[in-house]
Amino acid sequence: MLRPRPCSGCEDRTPKKKFSEVQTERREEAQRTVLIHCPNKISEKKFLKYLLQYGPINNHFFYESFGLYAVVEFCQKESVASLQNASRTPSLGTEAAVPFRSRFFNLKLKNASDQPSEQSCVSCSSQSPPSSKKLFGLLCDAESVDDQLNILVKEFQLTVENTKLRYLTCSLIEDMAAAYFPDCAVRPFGSSVNGFGKLGCDLDMFLDLDEIGKANSHKTSGNFLMEFQVKNVPSERIATQKILSVIGECLDHFGPGCVGVQKILNARCPLVRFSHQASGFQCDLTTNNRIALKSSELLYLYGALDSRVRALVFSVRCWARAHSLTSSIPGAWITNFSLTMMVIFFLQRRSPPILPTLDYLKSIADAEDTCVIEGHSCTFVCDLNRIKPSENTEAPELLLKEFFEYFGNFAFNKNSINIRQGREQNKPEPSPLHIQNPFETSLNISKNVSQSQLQKFVDLARESAWILHQEDKDHASPSRNQPWGLAALLLPSVAKSMSHAKRKRKKPASERVKNLLESIKSSSTENSTNTSGKRTVSTQA
Predict the structure, then answer these.
(1) Pairing state of beta strands 258-264 and 271-276?
(2) 121 in helix, strand or coil?
(3) Could you tell me if 164 and 189 are in contact, meaning their C-beta atoms sit under 8 angstroms apart?
(4) Phi first, then psi: what are they for 380, rounded to 5°?
């Protein structure tokens, strides 16, 4: 069942880009890109011919979201200005238009006869995750659990087009903020950039004002120092609230495609929440949230070090969502960030470790990697190519099973999770689940999790370990219509039926769990010798 995996260092010798390099490239692409609302039927050839009069085009794609849209990246920013100069403010008859010069356009046909007669004239890039039916079909047709994990990543990960659309959306918001704060930047963070985002996830962005006034900070001659005249407020939090209040008003009244704007200014981290209708993204805008961006960089680094990291994170997150362990609504649930920290910690605990500790990444950092934000050390090596690949060759299937076993028996009542040191530590506070914030080390990122939700996680982890172990033990050839492996773990009904079957037994729960773990450990030697990785799929109904 378990296929030996080549050393992760042998997978890809191509030098990997730094997080900052990727961010810079994407931002520059977005700045020379436009978003165009198109007629439902349009000739792609005529469309491109029309746009080429403004300059050469690097790439483009179409997608659907409340209509047909095109994302067009020009080769030069000057082409965008030329297109803007040739565009006009629409005449709306009885309504009045707010004359805002943006890079979001509406394309109309001059004559109805120009409309193509064919049913569909352009192919659209999908911006949505696969349906449950399609996903389960793909998982059930896979040859091994390893293949299932790879399929899950492939189907759910952000596409190149979706990533471009996210950076473009931030760039469009930046254009509006720049009216008030020239030289500002609106940067995406979180799942959109850390390598663990899935299609359909929210777009987190922050308004970066740190560079304002620093562009001209070079030394000047003479006896004088010139500073900007500014408005003073009592605290940085109040300044943040005032800035976001103004930006929120601007988005609400003048932002093309921005709807449902909410100013949530009294939260611990003030934000503006809105829907960007054209892209289909739910957006959260904060300001000067640099630690969050640094956390995104750390996750990007971990995910890029070894392909098994993303495979395990995607599968655990998908499993958690299928069993309602996570939710898009704030509450006592475990968050995706906490689950990702748990996966990283688990991979640090393997022998040999698959991922290095954060303290190790700090120890090999250069002077240029030094980063201190609000008094917190956020230093770690940024160049992926300087980190030695892991010698661990464990298969993803084994890691998934042992992840569930590890946390199904973790001493949450006394130990905390700490990826800085990669080892268990005594909990500094009585919260049911304690996961140390990697940078703001006095904070617990999972303080919101209740005891009942943690127990639910533990119970489901034990159930999942049992399901995977039983499949190894039985060596059954599953039907194409019968969920197995990862597909079986994603069905809540399977877990419930397993719980129901176990409740029918007369033995106490603690004794059943003990027997289960003993059986798993006793068969580990047998499993380690079974390395074919192939699964025979029955063609019978």
Answers:
(1) antiparallel
(2) coil
(3) no
(4) -160, 160
- Pure H helices in 125-159: 132-140, 145-156
* CA nearest neighbour of 492 among 314, 311, 325: 325
Contacts of 13 (CB under 8 A, 6+ apart): none
Mean pLDDT, each 10-residue run in order, the chain (541 residues): 40 73 96 95 92 96 93 97 91 72 90 59 87 91 94 96 97 94 93 95 94 62 84 92 95 93 93 96 93 96 96 97 90 95 98 97 95 94 94 96 96 96 92 96 94 96 92 61 88 53 46 53 48 39 40
End-to-end CA distance of the chain: 23
The DSSP line for 8-44 is GGGT--SPPPPHHHHHHHHHHHHHTEEEEEE-SS--H
The CA distance from 284 to 271, in Å, is 6
Q: Which of 388, 294, 314 is nearest to 23 (CA)?
A: 294
Beta strands, E only, 309-414: 372-373, 376-377
CB atoms within 10 A of CB 510: 8
Torsions phi, psi of 518, nearest 5? -65, -40
H/E run at residue 84? helix 77-85
pTM for this model (two decimals): 0.86
How far apart CA 311 and CA 303 sit, in angstroms, is 9
User: What pLDDT score does 115 carry?
Assistant: 61
Tell how strand 271-276 and strand 281-287 pair up: antiparallel
Q: Is the peptide bond before 352 cis (omega within 30 degrees of 0)?
A: yes
**CA–CA separation, 429 vs 442, rounded Å?**
10
Q: Token pair of 150, please?
A: 């790879």
- Rounded Cα–Cα distance for residues 390 and 311 (Å): 16
Sheet holding 33-38, edge to edge: 57-64, 68-74, 33-38, 104-106
